[in-house]
């Protein structure tokens, strides 16, 4: 008798994030392939950033320049760059079994969303100039996640102006850069036209109050101004959150 086995689930492409960037496709492609340029949009400043970029984008990536596609080994994810005249569409696509992902929180997916919008911001607003970043992560001490504590849970639509208190800043202003189910990005004028990305992970068995990540991207601040910014945000963070590395 022939043993019956379940047929493999059909695979389909899921677009995890798609952004239009006001830069030619060759410029966007270069930003995805040159490690020195990847440092100015991917992740945040850390001692491990260079090694992470080498691992993800160099030793474990297959690039097809003709189609402007980067496939990442070990996962079913890929970057695609599509020319649209003087602009480009950049997207991350995952090949996975068919089905709805509406209720899924996936840390890797959220990372692709954050970093792709950071790429678009770095190209559109700063031409991939050097950035300086601050990063905070951990569970909240009470039952409120990051966007609620920052007053961004009712942020305007993407592209609209916003102004008001922001964490330890009594007055801040900018525009809403993007919104997604689990995260929000807003520009901050006072940070040299910088960017704040807030990621809220819903409560889970591992983190009953949830988990929050903040990435503050700044441009052109002096070392003294950056140190003052770090001090203000560190004090604000420690009153409201425990500190833990992502994935812990």
Would you give an account of this structure?
The protein is of the alpha+beta class. Helix content is 27%, strand content 34%. It has a 6-stranded antiparallel beta sheet, sandwiched between helices. Strands 1-5-4-3-2 form a 5-stranded antiparallel beta sheet. The protein is globular and about 50 Å long. The N and C termini lie far apart (48 Å). The relative contact order is 0.15. The mean pLDDT is 93. This is Activator of Hsp90 ATPase homolog 1-like protein. InterPro entries: START-like_dom_sf (IPR023393). It comes from Brevundimonas viscosa.
How does the SSE layout of this entry go?
Elements: E1 11-21, H1 25-33, H2 35-38, H3 49-59, E2 61-64, E3 69-72, E4 77-84, E5 87-97, H4 107-126, E6 132-138, H5 146-150, E7 161-166, E8 169-179, E9 183-188, E10 194-201, E11 211-218, H6 223-240
Antiparallel strand pairs: 1-5, 2-3, 3-4, 4-5, 6-11, 7-8, 8-9, 9-10, 10-11
Protein name: Activator of Hsp90 ATPase homolog 1-like protein
InterPro entries: START-like_dom_sf
CATH topology of the largest domain: Alpha-D-Glucose-1,6-Bisphosphate, Chain A, domain 4
Average pLDDT, to the nearest integer?
A: 93
What is the rounded distance between the termini? 48 Å
Oligomeric state, counting identical vs distinct chains = single chain
